[in-house]
Design a protein that fits this description.
Blueprint: E1 8-15, H1 18-32, E2 36-43, H2 54-72, E3 75-78, H3 90-103, E4 107-110, H4 118-135, E5 150-154, E6 167-171, H5 173-183, H6 197-213, E7 219-224
Parallel strand pairs: 1-2, 1-4, 2-3, 4-5
Antiparallel strand pairs: 5-7, 6-7
């Protein structure tokens, strides 16, 4: 393990596959260094299959998420909220707050503020409120308060409005191959739901490699740093690891 202690990363996505797709390479690189990662999905994302019912696809997505996480060296947590109906309120934000306090992550990665998908926009707000609630000792819950110093936003094809790639993370080829194998756990990766996810995210990784490292990097993933007060904790900083 690099560094002096085990560190923890928590991704928070609206649907199973959201953060696996957009932060999966970073997760794999993180866990390969001996650290721990947790992938929290607020819904299974069960309404996107052309032939399966929502109930059938929810069960499939949970299995796929667990297998993908296993291949990334992470743990999958999928909540029971409904796809396309993800609420935004204190109840769900406090539920996620409890998960943050339990896991005690050093890094949280979630959706950026803007998205064409309502669930993604709500997931961003839920994650940011949960991060806030988790840090306040005056909010009494089952576990004590926990402050996650670094919060980042991942690059998702539905969330590109105002997305700025502030941090480029080099992805070695074995990690890229691990990522592709892990994401193949999802039927959607190879077009099973009607959109070419594999083509998009493989091409994006190569593009970001060119932009981030020129001739020296083959692949890369990017993260956006929050605006405002939280930026001081992450600006000019790579992930709190030596990878």
């Amino acid at each position: 393990m690099t560094g002096t202690r085990e560190m923890r990363i928590l991704t928070i996505g609206a649907h199973a596959a959201d953060q696996e797709l957009s932060a999966g390479m970073i997760i794999a690189k993180y866990t390969a260094a001996g650290h721990k990662a947790f992938i929290l999905s607020l819904t299974p994302g069960e309404k996107g299959h052309p032939t399966l019912s929502a109930e059938e696809y929810a069960e499939q997505k949970r299995r796929e998420a667990a297998e993908c996480a296993r291949k990334l060296g992470a743990e999958s947590i999928v909540l029971n909220y409904k796809d396309a109906e993800l609420p935004y309120n204190d109840e769900i934000s406090l539920e996620v707050c409890d998960i943050i306090r339990d896991i005690k992550p050093d890094v949280i990665i979630t959706h950026p503020e803007h998205s064409i998908h309502r669930d993604h926009r709500h997931a961003h707000k839920i994650a940011m409120d949960a991060h806030f609630f988790a840090a306040l000792k005056w909010i009494e819950r089952a576990k004590p308060a926990h402050w996650t110093r670094r919060v980042y936003f991942s690059e998702n094809w539905e969330d590109m409005e105002d997305y700025e790639p502030d941090i480029y993370v080099e992805i070695p080829e074995p990690i890229f191959e691990q990522y592709c194998d892990a994401l193949s756990s999802f039927a959607l990766w190879n077009g099973g739901t009607g959109w070419p996810y594999a083509d998009y995210y493989k091409s994006l990784a190569r593009l970001r490699g060119c932009l981030g490292g020129g001739l020296n990097w083959k692949y890369a993933a990017t993260l956006m740093v929050p605006k405002g007060g939280l930026r001081q904790y992450a600006a000019g900083d790579r992930l709190p690891l030596e990878l």
